[in-house]
Design brief:
Helix content is 50%, strand content 13%. The protein is of the alpha/beta class and 319 residues long. The protein has two domains: 9-147, no CATH class; 155-318, no CATH class. Bound molecules: zinc ion.
Length: 319
Amino acid sequence: MACTEGLPEDAKPAWRARRNWLLGLTRAMLLTLPQRLVAQTDDAQPVMQTLTVGGGQLDLQFAPGFDARLRTEAIAWTRRSADAVVGYFGRFPVARVQLLMAPTEGSGVRGGVTYGEPELLVRVRVGRDTTRAQFLDDWIMVHEMIHLAIPRIPRSQNWLHEGLATYVESVARGRAGLVAPATVWREWAKAMPQGQPQAGDAGLDHTPTWGRTYWGGAMFCLFADVQMLTRSARRAGLQQALQGVLAAGGDYGVSWPVDRILATADAAVGQTTLTELYQRLKDSPEPAALDALWRDLGVAGNTLNDNAPLAAVRRAILS
Ligand SMILES: [Zn+2]
């Protein structure tokens, strides 16, 4: 996956300096230029736009290099992504966030990074030739916005953040109608085995490989979601648990230990599922029983089997 999150400290100052330059330029422009010139802002100058979605204020800053077509598409993409996140969490995860759009060569959304300090900030790189279809197909913006809904955690446990963002992104986009449920299940069945422990694995907290971080984390979320929905007779799952974390003030603006995030999430649904699963997998290379899970959920290639024992749980996840 192209997303990176929680870059080392030394990767931040260069961007921050550039960002301050961008903000400074924008302010200077607004203060000194006659109004008609501001209105005619061309591609060579930064453009700012504010969206309000689900109670959150999204301050978009387009770096120089976005033409009017690309800005219009990017604004629609941002709103659509935010709507999907609001659909899952019940509101936009934070009261205010800055979204920096940086243009790059080529087409497609090329990666995103979310920062919690000194203020909430998401930066995405967007190819200048990105088409409407590519924006519609993009997962990165939703993924980054989901990071905003979870407290920051120690870097060694990044698998939980990336796992949640990876898993919930598909659920949120599936429920919003941006991707078909059958496609989500097919892609998960194909991708999740990449999260299985390999030789030398020492458990999720001690194996920061790409596969274990993104897909090991996503598998943790899927197994927890299935367990929570089963135990609650489908009344509450990971969605309600994570809404409980947000309601308790746990968003990307704060740092919490993993134990606190999981205990808060568990308490919101009156279970101990997440804490139990974490205790079992944090120091252990135990492989996940994926084949049995797909069989129980009724996922078989392009076919979804509604007679499978957990078919109702499968439908509850994406409906
Ligand atoms: Zn991420």
